[in-house]
Amino acid sequence: MTLQEILNAKGRAVHTIGWNATLEDVVQTLVRHNCGSLIVCDVSDDRDKRHDDAGPPGHMVGIITERDILRACARHQGPLASLKVADAMTTDVVTGSPNDSVEATMGLMTEMRIRHLPVVEGGQLQGLVSIGDVVKLQYDRLSMENHYLKSYIQG
Prior knowledge:
Elements: H1 3-10, E1 16-18, H2 23-33, E2 37-41, E3 60-65, H3 66-75, H4 85-88, H5 102-112, E4 116-121, E5 124-130, H6 131-154
Parallel strand pairs: 1-2
Antiparallel strand pairs: 2-3, 4-5
């Protein structure tokens, strides 16, 4: 199984935000979409500070996660509305390819201690895979294998 298969099953919608939005905007967007990360895009037009849809308007410049927000809160004593995404986001983003195996992805995510992996091909964002997506796929695969083995044994 590959990341391509996970994206085909779950969809390719990715929630994004501009680098110049506030952390308050990030929290509201994460809660609204019930997700744990947003892809940060280079939004050249300042009128859209809280971009948030299924496809980035610019290229990916980082990712902001719940963990990044906690780190920013620990570093700064002040309201989230006064902190910018650009100051808290992760810029050295670990990415995967649609052809990467699920097993290799599990190892990468464990080694790098990350829970969200943008999937990129040819410089274009294809989707986002979470550790939950990977675990679900493995669970489904093992459940199916278990079912077939029980059926085989019972004859």
